[in-house]
Amino acid sequence: MTLPRSLLLAAILLAACAAPRVAPAPPPEGEPTVMVHLVAHDWHTGIAIRRADIPAGIWPESRDFPQAEYLEVGWGDREFYQKPDPGLWTTLRAALWPTASVLHVVGFPGPVAGYFRASEVIELALPSDGFERLVRYIHDAHERSGAPAAAPLGPGLYGEGRFYPGRESFHLFRTCNVWTARALRAAGLPIREAITSEGLMSQAREIGKVGNSPKR
Questions:
Q1: How many folded domains does the chain comprise?
Q2: Is 24 within the bounds of a domain?
Q3: Which tens digit of pLDDT belongs to each residue from 189-202?
């Protein structure tokens, strides 16, 4: 018997939420660490890092926010992400077909949990080389078309935010949360890919420190 498409999609999403827990992998004792923050915005997740920690020569777009203490970056479908009310067709298009992507970067003052009071925030400690790999992952996600830095596509959704063109395509199996999970795994964290924000946050709670949990 063939499952209806809606049931198949539900099964995929439930499987993502049910990803098994992973064991923490702390840096060797005495090794310096860099703190990053995983932020949940309902269905979407982002990564916040201290701007001063970004290694020189990586992620040139971060220099567009000279007054910011922290930068939060998220990734998603280019058309859907930039619309406050995307509508049914834009939602289905983003879910069912490969589409262009975009990065959303927001500069803000700290602390992270204070700025995102309505969102769950989890602190994650990275070794310095893992943090550099994370920033390189973000760097490589931008579509620069040969230019030194990508030009913003327009203002962001909140605060001092801007959208930038992304290099990879967005589709059902490469969602914003999959992108975030891959970024954290590139940094060396034992994170499995998760289509939903809860599938990702449930893993991060096991290896990090919950700094803000207003909805739990």
A1: 1
A2: no
A3: 999 999 899 999 99
